[in-house]
Fold this protein.
Amino acid sequence: MALTIHDLDTPAVVVDLDVMEANLARMAAFCRDHRLRLRPHTKTHKVPELAHAQVRSGACGITVAKVGEAEVMAAAGLDNILIAYPVVGALKVERLARLALRRAMTVALDSREAAAGISAGLHSRGASIDVLVEINTGFGRCGVTIGPEAIELARYVASLPSLKFRGVMVYPGNMLVDAGKIAPLVQNERTRDAEIVELFNRAGLPIEIFSAGSTPSAPITGDLPAVNEIRPGTYIYNDMNTVGSGACTLADCATTALVTVVSTAVPGKAMMDGGSKTFSSDTLRTGKAAGYGYIVEDPDAVVSGFNEEHGHLDLRASGRKYRVGERLRVIPNHVCAMINLHDQVYGVRGETVEVVWNVAGRGKLQ
Ligand SMILES: Cc1ncc(COP(=O)(O)O)c(C=O)c1O
């Protein structure tokens, strides 16, 4: 007999396969239509089988955040892997060199220290790697400033053994804003991107790869002519932050936590068996919804707080009767952080559990 959603113990992460497949197909079609290379960030799902599905649907390769994630993906046969995070430290560089001997690897970096360390470590092992210089266009997390220091770093990269300068990476994380507030940010991004292209052209360092993008900024990439590659991650599942940004609707959210109501003893409240160890405690950065997640069965309930194993439902605005033992589905605020807390995810079609995936890349923090 086939396993159904009713056979799963809770809390469990459930993926609606129809919705997920539509999300994959939509982004792949968008990239094809706009002549963009799609290099999805796999930190959202951390499942090699899903990375393969993304490549099958048209991705040119994949993105990861950590060397450990790259190792998991490479071991599962994935190739052409971008580590979109500065690889710093001899222990990581040694593992990066081993990867670069087997796979086409690219790293993004924003310092001479990172470049020198990777060059020395790879050169001594006979490996080589492509490099994107990360540039800050406004998010203010990583990335050199647009100007002479970006050119100096690119020239330095080009001068080092085992490193090949291929272009630039930007991450417009500042574009995760409420729907309707993105227009001035697009204008800023377009201006910054054009400055980058001009700067590098003038310096005689043509940019082959201009890697940008994220889920909330993907739909406006058509307005950013400098960009030829995007790295959306969240789009495969979507979450409440993506809904708030206007980049998807509730119906496009493929992934929910299936939870059980375990207590209704406190008046005006119910407790579900998922807290911060199920969802993470990420707050909502966009949209009008309140709380730490969206209850599909009862939009008027507010997920008002978490203990480690308890999720507090504030029912003051809800007319619904809750009973101990019933199950609910919750769309998380930040799906990537939730996934990292789970060993497995269950792919369902209708009520049938069609596939169980191991989240092989979870917890690979190094
Ligand atoms: C460097 C980088 N690129 C791409 C992404 C993907 O962004 P999103 O998950 O919004 O699609 C992230 C997300 O954190 C990121 O840090």
The longest strand covers residues 255-263. Residues 41, 44, 84, 171, 214-216, 231-235 surround pyridoxal-5'-phosphate (CB under 6 Å).
